[in-house]
């Protein structure tokens, strides 16, 4: 579900009017499902049609999706459920059912893939198509868009909005303004004109901070931003990359290149505490649980990762993150957990080992109330093709093992296997137990 600002009234009519029928070069389609999670729930509960449906339950959770009826009350995705209940007390709140949504998503993308193999799936409810190669069969991209919307509705009972343009950037903006259940073609020659009708916050990647910086220069609209030179934008943003993005965005310039088989960028888990907490043990336990889950997913997918990131959300809903790139890749829960614990201490400006479960002084309170904690890993690669250098602890264990074997030959008792080998066997055993009895059957201890 897109939360990008949409025009209304006369501005909306101006932006979504027929910009012309010139489809020259307009081979990029952005398909965006309308209120996808909520629409899926209404699909299996037809009696909810026309009512304010909100996907997300529990006062500690956030809204995952809201029907258009619920949005009329100001409900938006990522909003705390408690806030949504105040805004829309008559709303129908339903739990998230990701397996069901993924099933419907696969059916949607099967329809897209029946037209062309040039399909990029960017999330469960949106994606891009490059239809250049199939225009020899279809008369125009407008015909393709009409066919997609018809098939999605007739086969699945769902609706989608489609933007058509010469590049990804404008196509996505067009689909947003076409919502709900519409399609919009922006001819290549008029893309700059179209973009400059939109508010600055409608441009993907432009947030409050950038808008504030532009406002200090008296720039409050996209059309005004388009009058600035690249050098002026560099002075305002203090970033060459941000300046180049804004310069291109305000002129409707973008790429049409799709990533058809995107490698997995990150694996993570985050959880909201039942109550905001300052308890060090609760936060440490959450970091351990998330690290264990992430490591299990790495092993399941037969990949390793180098960068560990910790995410905290405080009671005032502020987010903070910190990352560290390991010297070598890993899929070990203890390694990920130790790194995550250190990062968390740094985020909270605590002394080293303050979150160590073996620390007798661990009962100290955290410096602020924590609402959510999470761990993720990135820089992912195939475990079969990635060299994993032994850690210092592993080398010590191996040296001790070799020494013990030598002693054994002289009559001493043989020592246990190296720590790394025992740990690998333990993790494999955990994976096997979880596979049979469920992910919550067993966990690593701190």
Automatic annotation (TrEMBL):
Q: Name one Pfam family in it.
A: IMS_HHH_1
Give the highest taxon in the source lineage.
Answer: Bacteria
Which EC number(s) are documented for this chain? 2.7.7.7
The record's Gene Ontology cellular component field reads:
cytosol
Cited CDD domains:
PolY_Pol_IV_kappa
UniProt keywords (A-Z) are:
Cytoplasm, DNA damage, DNA repair, DNA replication, DNA-binding, DNA-directed DNA polymerase, Magnesium, Metal-binding, Mutator protein, Nucleotidyltransferase, Transferase
Q: Which residues form the active site?
A: 126
The record places domain UmuC at: 28-207
> What GO terms are given for molecular function?
damaged DNA binding; DNA-directed DNA polymerase activity; magnesium ion binding
- Cofactor(s) recorded in Swiss-Prot or TrEMBL: Mg(2+)
Region Disordered, residue ranges: 403-422
Q: What class of enzyme is it?
A: transferase
Q: Which Gene3D superfamilies match?
A: 3.30.70.270, 3.40.1170.60, 5' to 3' exonuclease, C-terminal subdomain, DNA polymerase, Y-family, little finger domain
Indicate which residues the UniProt annotation says bind Mg(2+).
32, 125
Q: How is the cofactor bound?
A: Binds 2 magnesium ions per subunit.
Name one process (GO BP) from the record.
error-prone translesion synthesis
Task: Give the matching PROSITE patterns.
Answer: UMUC (PS50173)
Q: What compartments host this protein?
A: Cytoplasm
Q: Which reaction does it catalyse?
A: DNA(n) + a 2'-deoxyribonucleoside 5'-triphosphate = DNA(n+1) + diphosphate
Site annotation (Substrate discrimination) points to 37
The UniProt function text for this chain reads: Poorly processive, error-prone DNA polymerase involved in untargeted mutagenesis. Copies undamaged DNA at stalled replication forks, which arise in vivo from mismatched or misaligned primer ends. These misaligned primers can be extended by PolIV. Exhibits no 3'-5' exonuclease (proofreading) activity. May be involved in translesional synthesis, in conjunction with the beta clamp from PolIII.
State the family it belongs to.
Answer: Belongs to the DNA polymerase type-Y family.
Binding partners and assembly? Monomer.
Name recorded for this polypeptide: DNA polymerase IV
Species per Swiss-Prot/TrEMBL record: Galliscardovia ingluviei
């Amino acid at each position: 579900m897109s939360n990008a600002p949409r025009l209304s009234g006369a501005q909306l009519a101006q932006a979504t009017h027929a910009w012309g029928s010139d489809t020259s070069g307009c081979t990029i389609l952005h398909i965006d499902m309308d209120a996808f999670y909520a629409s899926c729930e209404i699909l299996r509960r037809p009696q909810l049609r026309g009512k304010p449906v909100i996907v997300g339950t529990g006062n500690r959770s956030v809204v995952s999706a809201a029907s258009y009826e619920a949005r009329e009350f100001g409900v938006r995705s990522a909003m705390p459920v408690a806030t949504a209940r105040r805004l829309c007390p008559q709303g129908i709140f339903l739990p998230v059912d990701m397996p069901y949504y993924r099933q419907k998503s696969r059916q949607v993308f099967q329809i897209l893939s029946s037209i062309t193999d040039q399909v990029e799936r960017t999330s469960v409810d949106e994606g891009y198509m490059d239809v250049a190669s199939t225009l020899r069969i279809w008369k125009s991209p407008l015909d393709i868009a009409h066919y997609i919307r018809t098939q999605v509705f007739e086969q699945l009972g769902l609706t989608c909005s489609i933007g058509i343009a010469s590049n990804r950037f404008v196509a996505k903006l067009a689909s947003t303004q076409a919502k709900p259940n519409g399609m919009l073609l922006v001819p290549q020659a008029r893309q700059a004109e179209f973009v400059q009708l939109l508010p600055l916050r409608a441009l993907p990647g432009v947030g409050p901070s950038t808008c504030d910086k532009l406002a200090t220069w008296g720039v409050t609209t996209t059309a005004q931003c388009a009058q600035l030179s690249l050098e002026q934008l560099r002075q305002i943003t203090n970033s060459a990359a941000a300046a180049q993005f804004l310069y291109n965005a305000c002129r409707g310039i973008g790429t049409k290149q799709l990533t058809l088989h995107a490698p997995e960028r990150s694996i993570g888990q985050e959880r909201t505490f039942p109550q905001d907490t300052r308890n060090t043990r609760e936060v440490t336990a959450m970091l351990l649980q998330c690290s264990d889950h992430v490591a299990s997913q790495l092993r399941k997918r037969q990949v390793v990762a180098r960068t560990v990131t910790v995410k905290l959300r405080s009671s005032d809903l502020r987010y903070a993150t910190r990352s560290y790139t390991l010297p070598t890749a890993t899929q070990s829960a203890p390694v990920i957990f130790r790194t995550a614990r250190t990062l968390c201490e740094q985020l909270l400006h605590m002394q080293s080992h303050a979150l160590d479960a073996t620390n007798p002084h661990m009962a100290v309170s955290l410096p602020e109330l924590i609402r959510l904690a999470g761990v993720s890993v990135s820089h992912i690669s195939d475990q079969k093709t990635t060299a994993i250098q032994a850690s210092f602890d592993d080398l010590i264990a191996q040296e001790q093992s070799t020494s013990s074997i030598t002693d054994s030959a002289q009559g001493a008792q043989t020592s246990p296997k190296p720590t790394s080998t025992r740990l690998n066997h333990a993790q494999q055993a955990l994976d096997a137990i979880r596979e049979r009895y469920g992910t919550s059957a067993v966990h690593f201890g701190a």
